[in-house]
Amino acid sequence: MGVAGLDHLVIAVTDYDRSIAFYRDVLGAEPVDLNYGRVGLLLPGGTQLNVHGPGATPPIRAAEPVRPGNSDICLRWDGTVEEAAAHLAAHGVEVEQGPVERIGARGAGTSLYFRDPDGSLLELITYG
């Protein structure tokens, strides 16, 4: 018995519609309704991003909430780094850095870095 994996991450946004469209169209996330005025974005593979934004009133937490633009999230890309770069380009997303060699959860990989509409840093890593 113990930790089985990552369940969800919280991102904060300034514009729900813009952010939901970005994560849906660029990263394949499926929007799901949550309580307290929040939206979830279910990513391929089962991890969820809980989206906090204007008007959200989540219950009190032990820590200060994340602010828009402060997240740093690495997602595994199932394909080549060239395919990932082409996918981002097709969606008009500028690669900020990469391809660069990085060490991730599965060892050595190649990553591309880019930003979401609020400035949070996103990374796609490929292995193999």
Keywords:
alpha/beta, 128 residues, 4-stranded mixed sheet, globular, 17% helix
What can you tell me about this protein's structure?
The chain is of the alpha/beta class. It has two helices and eight strands. 17% of the residues lie in helices and 36% in strands. The strands form two sheets. The protein has a four-stranded mixed beta sheet, with helices on one face. The model has no long low-confidence stretch (mean pLDDT 91).
How would you concisely characterize the structure shown here?
The chain has 2 helices and 8 strands; from the N terminus they run βαββββαβββ. It is of the alpha/beta class. Strands 1-4-3-2 form a 4-stranded mixed beta sheet, with helices on one face. Strands 5-8-7-6 form a 4-stranded mixed beta sheet, covered by helices on one side.
Number of helices: 2
Any low-confidence stretches, pLDDT <50, length ≥5? none
> In angstroms, what is the radius of gyration?
15 Å
Mean pLDDT: 91
Strand content: 35-45%
